[in-house]
Amino acid sequence: DAGITQSPRHKVTETGTPVTLRCHQTENHRYMYWYRQDPGHGLRLIHYSYGVKDTDKGEVSDGYSVSRSKTEDFLLTLESATSSQTSVYFCAISESRDLAPQHFGDGTRLSIL
Amino acid sequence: SQQGEEDPQALSIQEGENATMNCSYKTSINNLQWYRQNSGRGLVHLILIRSNEREKHSGRLRVTLDTSKKSSSLLITASRAADTASYFCATDAVRTSGTYKYIFGTGTRLKVLA
Fold first, then answer.
1. Taking CB atoms and an 8 Å cutoff, what residues of chain B touch A45?
2. From the CA of A106, how many Å to the nearest CA of chain B?
3. Sorting pLDDT into bands at 50, 70 and 90, what band is A2?
4. Is the peptide bond between A39 and the residue preceding it cis, with omega within 30 degrees of 0?
5. How many interchain CB pairs under 8 A, A with B?
6. Is CB count within 10 Å lower at the N or C end of chain B?
7. Distance from first CA to last CA of chain A, Å, rounded?
8. Rounded to 5 degrees, what are φ and ψ at A84?
9. What percent of chain B has pLDDT over 90?
């Protein structure tokens, strides 16, 4: 399995609190992605990174920010969590953006009460 | 509705039977990928087919792509209980407004009965 670690694996927090999820890779892949998975919606891309300090928005980026200060780490931050952000969050990595498989972490289950 | 919709939503078969699931998409693509997700785990890449390919095999997996119909199918032959999982197709949708899009479908839940 590709070396991808997501932390925490589970988190319960309250509306309005800040939340940071971490994705750590040991594969030295250039591209990193954050997705959320919700019933009936499949996976939706939140943000992605194509290098250190280089990030761009996905299709559901409102309410989320990301940072990548090192090749191996990609952080997803919910500045002020809302109940609609309750979801399972997946990090993925790939060697290139196109024509390359994405390798996924095992997800973070986030519940916002 | 979104790019990359799988059909059927759920499928239940006996061990040893073949399982076929379909994916339809709306816009032109460069490639289409299939992934498997076991319960509580992340997605695992199965196979990638380029837009200029019509069929691809990998072990017990056979993927076809029909760009004229904007559809793909995944066939799992001689299914096993371990194939029980959700299966997703993913397409690289055309970029709009400079925003990169890589679209996953909602998945087919396959249950293989021993």
1. 100-102
2. 4
3. low
4. no
5. 62
6. N
7. 33
8. -70, -10
9. 73
Name the residue among A61, A54, A66 with its Cα closest to residue A97. A54
**Which of these, A68, A65, A87, A58, lies nearest to A23 by C-alpha position?**
A68
Given a cut of 70, whether residue B96 has pLDDT beyond it is no
What is the amino acid identity at position A40? G
Identify which of A33, A35, A40 has the shortest CB distance to residue B106.
A40
Is A70 in CB contact (< 8 Å) with chain B?
no
For residue B106, give the DSSP letter.
-
Q: Which two tokens stand for residue A103?
A: 């390798």
Contact B99 A41 (CB under 8 A): no
Secondary structure (DSSP) of A82-98: -GGG-EEEEEEEESSSS
Q: Which two tokens stand for residue B100?
A: 């990169």
